[in-house]
Write a structure and sequence with these properties.
The strands form 2 sheets. The protein has a 6-stranded mixed beta sheet with strand order 1-8-9-10-7-11. The protein has a 5-stranded parallel beta sheet with strand order 3-2-4-5-6, sandwiched between helices. The relative contact order is 0.10. Helix 3 links the parallel strand 4 and strand 5. It folds into 3 domains: 125 residues, 3-Layer(aba) Sandwich (Rossmann fold); 164 residues, P-loop containing nucleotide triphosphate hydrolases (Rossmann fold, 3-Layer(aba) Sandwich); 57 residues, no CATH class. Helix content is 42%, strand content 13%. Helix 2 runs parallel beside helix 3 and helix 11 packs across helix 14. By secondary structure, it is of the alpha/beta class. The longest helix is centred in the middle third of the chain and has 13 residues.
């Protein structure tokens, strides 16, 4: 996965725990250290028997176990764990996976085997996928709860007629698992809305990946996203049953756009695709920056966000929200005086396509 791909999970306030089983204390500690970045509770066990006792008490969502252990092997432990909880996710670690191990993994729907020496990146990616597998479905929130979640999404804050319509449109889009095209100028909040659509939609319990087409080369995009022959790349395979947020679709090379269009139905059957652009689909088509077939595929579900400079009625509520969440938005010492800021030249000029409201407030706070 490329360095420009971001991974996020949504735990919905659920305490996620994993169990790491290895009779080698050095390997056990190393795996635990790597997994500390997953924002989960990690327990350790040095034998299969100890692992079973801990699992019975805590029912960990994921168990990472070495294959070669005595007296109980990783395969034996896996079988016993599945007897207790058929839904538990299991990752096997092996120096040299045998045909028996690979056959067991395939027939019992285990995560891909992690080979030694362990690559921290491979371990993290596989663990993320395992934690989110089969957890993509969730019930869409009720009206009141959903409204509260929208109140924490900056682009959806405000009392204007447009903001009310925008929230209604977002509510409708939360009911779909189809692809959604989100457009609007820089700084309008496309990424925030896309993340809300993921977290509160049907795939909210699953993995969410982001791919930035404008910062990757054609070769990198072909490898990570899709080849010209239509073979899905690593990012699409990893995002299966989850969401892929695709930024700056107009920067995706035309042959790859065509490949995406030709294989669109098969891809969105596995992944919800949220496509973002600073320009409307019609503008992209007129400028010959979008494949015609892809244009029609993406035009079925669309959401257009205006520049914040066009939402002056909503700006006071947005300013207050940002000021009340200084750490979230990186405001220096949280020292924004809202009343003074709204009387300043900074506020009068306001956000623009080149400068977001958050940037304006940061500059004001640092002045």
């Amino acid at each position: 996965m490329s360095e420009n791909t971001q991974v996020s999970t949504n735990d919905n306030s659920e305490n996620v725990s994993i169990l790491i089983v290895d009779d080698n204390s050095i390997d056990r500690f190393m795996i635990t250290t790597v997994c500390s970045g997953l924002n989960v509770e990690a327990d350790m066990a040095s034998t299969g028997a100890e692992a079973l006792e801990k699992f019975k008490k805590k029912r960990h969502r994921l168990v990472i176990t070495d294959y070669v252990m005595e007296p109980m092997s990783g395969l034996e432990l896996s079988s016993k764990l599945r007897e207790i909880d058929p839904q538990v996710e299991i990752m096997l670690v092996s120096g040299a996976p045998t045909a028996e191990v690979l056959a067991y993994v395939q027939s019992n729907d285990l995560a891909p085997v992690i080979t030694k020496p362990i690559s921290p990146r491979a371990l993290i990616n596989t663990a993320l996928l395992s934690l989110d597998r089969k957890r993509g479905r969730r019930e869409v929130l009720g009206e009141v709860a959903l409204s509260n979640r929208m109140d924490a999404c900056l682009p959806l804050i405000g009392s204007s007629d447009f903001c009310r319509k925008l929230r209604t449109d977002v509510t409708k889009l939360l009911q779909t698992e189809d692809s959604i095209f989100i457009s609007g100028p820089l700084g309008c909040g496309k990424a925030e809305v896309a993340n809300l659509l993921h977290k509160e939609g049907a795939h909210g319990n699953s993995i969410c990946l982001e791919c930035f087409c404008s910062t990757e080369s054609a070769e990198e995009l072909s490898k990570s996203l899709i080849t010209e022959d239509g073979i899905p790349g690593e990012i699409i395979r990893t995002a299966e049953a989850g969401t892929l947020i695709l930024h700056n679709i107009e920067s995706l090379p035309m042959p790859l756009q065509k490949a995406l269009s030709n294989n669109f139905d098969a891809l969105i059957a596995k992944v919800q695709l949220l496509v973002l652009s600073n320009r409307s689909l019609d503008d992209l088509l007129d400028a010959e920056q979008i494949d015609e077939g892809l244009y029609f595929k993406l035009s079925l579900k669309m959401l257009e966000l205006p520049a914040l400079s066009e939402r002056t009625e909503d700006l006071p509520e947005m300013v207050q929200y940002i000021a009340n969440s200084p750490e979230k938005y990186g405001l220096k010492d949280g020292n924004i005086d809202v009343e003074n800021f709204m009387q300043s030249e900074s506020y009068t000029k306001g956000p623009s396509e080149d400068k977001s409201l958050i940037s304006v407030m940061r500059e004001y706070g640092e002045a």
